[in-house]
Specification:
Elements: H1 2-10, E1 14-19, H2 23-33, E2 39-44, E3 62-65, H3 67-74, H4 79-86, E4 88-96, E5 102-115, H5 116-130, E6 136-139, E7 142-148, E8 153-158, E9 164-168, E10 171-174, H6 181-186, E11 194-208, E12 221-226, E13 231-237, E14 243-250, H7 254-257, H8 262-272, H9 274-278, H10 282-290, E15 294-301, E16 305-306, E17 310-312, H11 315-318, H12 327-344, H13 349-373, H14 379-395, H15 407-413, H16 418-424, H17 426-440
Parallel strand pairs: 1-2, 1-10, 2-6, 4-12, 10-17
Antiparallel strand pairs: 3-5, 4-5, 7-8, 8-9, 11-14, 11-15, 12-13, 13-14, 16-17
The structure holds flavin-adenine dinucleotide.
Length: 441
């Protein structure tokens, strides 16, 4: 016993810097801190404290957490419950077609739908509640500007100040999203390959206030409205009865770029999304016009670690398009995978970090393929998608090897590795890829 205590006291506390307080950085902080006094965690975040901003003034969007993401949260005591309390349980989705026809898809396992800001607020509040400043600190308005890989030093710049300051650490985590500054430092580190691609669609955040009964939307349900104009709206309920959503449209769409006045926007929504339009007061349309158009940068690279002290994860390592709703689920799973590797290699970073790259690479590449090509852009192929899905749902029970569930269904209900999901659906994904490629020319 005394020997054990002496051994524990001999372990040096490692200083960890996490760049970015998105879902992956915050969840990883939970995992590291619950390993006792081994790690002291400092998070540096480019933006201000999200708990101080009104949700409708932030550029947030709804995120669906499926089995994979929920499992990663569940491993930390009380975290899944804290997230569920800020989100809503979704039992199904409803596709609203242009002529008013609706198709309902019931889920085997409910999803949690939660606005990104509410998700990060839940993860952050739990950290602050559980750990004091001797173990955990978060620095807002601090942008990582540079990583000196040789000197093992990270540079930051405070908002409203031209001066940079440098910080040393034992472990640096780049959880700083698709435009990662930490990842950029790898570019000079030899044999690092990076592919960046903008997804074909852009989006704007959308907020629908509490329904005043003009239109009754089923509450425990993700609503998707498709239009004849290549745009669609996705909305999920918030605990206060309002709806958080996004309007997604083809990049450089003349129709969307032409929405410069409230009258034009109202006419556009009445024509394309009459039901959603009834839920949008003029103030929301005005706010929507002010919000910038956002694009999605997707990321593929060949390595996630540098030596024994830097690791990139989440969107920084493998940002994907939101079409399958897996980016955040994969980012949360990254944190759980690193935790498992730290167990396996007894916190030996020189072994655990390269192994993270080795274990994650094939799945991350498969996720990129799946996210880009699980849903067809062509209307004809979309009909085939609906038919395939219905057939697979019935026949899979009897002949699973011949009728695999489609990626969207498999990813929602299971934690089957992404590479395996791609293998099961290779034929369909290749067909969609070919068709989407032709359409995108
Ligand atoms: C419209 C839309 C819908 C989506 N829907 C879903 C969904 O339903 N399900 C799902 O699983 N995923 C979804 N995603 C994807 C999901 O949002 C991301 O995969 C997830 O947020 C990634 O988490 P992250 O922590 O890796 O990075 P991020 O969430 O991007 O967080 C990175 C953080 O780092 C900070 N940062 C960036 N640069 C610096 C710097 N230089 N210095 C300091 N801090 C920095 C940023 O401010 C940010 O807070 C969606 C994405 C979009 C755009």
């Amino acid at each position: 016993m005394i020997q054990n205590l002496i051994e524990i006291s001999k372990v040096k506390m490692e200083k960890v810097i996490i760049v970015g307080s998105g879902p992956s950085g915050l969840l990883l902080a939970h995992y590291l801190l619950r390993r006792g006094n081994r790690y002291q965690v400092e998070i540096y975040e480019r933006l201000g404290d999200p708990r101080l901003a009104a949700p409708s003034n932030t550029r947030s969007f709804p995120i669906s957490l499926s089995t994979r993401g929920k499992n990663a949260l569940r491993k930390i005591d009380g975290l899944l419950e804290a997230v569920e309390a800020k989100g809503a349980k979704m039992q199904s989705s409803i596709l609203h077609q242009p002529k008013g026809k609706q198709s309902l898809l019931s889920f085997k396992t409910p999803l949690i739908a939660i606005d990104r800001i509410r998700l990060t607020n839940a993860l952050l509040s739990e950290l602050i509640e559980k750990y004091d400043s001797s173990q955990f600190n978060i620095h807002f308005d601090c942008q990582c500007t540079q990583v000196d890989l040789k000197a093992r030093q990270v540079k930051f710049q405070k908002q409203d100040s031209a001066e940079e300051f440098a910080v040393d650490c034992d472990l640096l985590i780049g959880a700083d999203g698709a435009r990662s500054a930490v990842r950029n430092s790898f570019l000079n580190a030899g044999r690092f390959e990076l592919e960046q691609k903008y997804f074909r669609d852009d989006y704007k955040s959308l907020y629908l206030p509490k329904d005043k009964n003009e239109t009754e939307l089923q509450p425990d349900c993700i609503h998707v409205w498709v239009s004849n104009s290549d745009s669609r709206i996705i909305a999920v309920p918030q605990p206060d009865g309002s709806w958080s959503g996004t309007i997604i449209f083809e990049r450089d769409s003349d129709e969307i770029l032409g929405l410069t006045t409230v009258d034009r926007a109202r006419e556009f929504f009445d024509r394309n999304f009459p039901e959603a339009s009834k839920l949008m007061p003029n103030e929301e349309i005005e706010a929507l016009l002010e919000r910038p158009i956002a694009s999605v940068l997707t990321i593929r690279c060949n390595r996630y670690h540098y030596e024994d002290w830097v690791l990139i994860m989440g969107d920084a390592a493998h940002g994907v398009s939101p079409s399958l709703g897996q980016g955040c689920n994969a980012a949360l799973e990254d944190a759980a995978i690193l935790d498992a590797l730290l167990d396996e290699y007894e916190d030996n970073l020189a072994e655990a970090l390269p192994e993270f790259t080795a274990r994650r690479l094939a799945d991350a590449r498969a996720l990129w393929e799946l996210s880009d090509n699980a849903f067809p852009s062509s209307k004809l192929l979309f009909m085939e998608f609906l038919l395939r899905r219905a057939v697979a749902k019935t026949m899979n029970k009897f002949f699973p090897q011949w009728f695999p569930l489609l990626p969207s269904d498999l990813l929602r209900d299971t934690t089957i590795p992404y590479a395996e999901v791609l293998k099961l659906n290779r034929g369909w994904v290749s067909k969609v890829k070919k068709a989407n490629g032709v359409l995108n020319v």
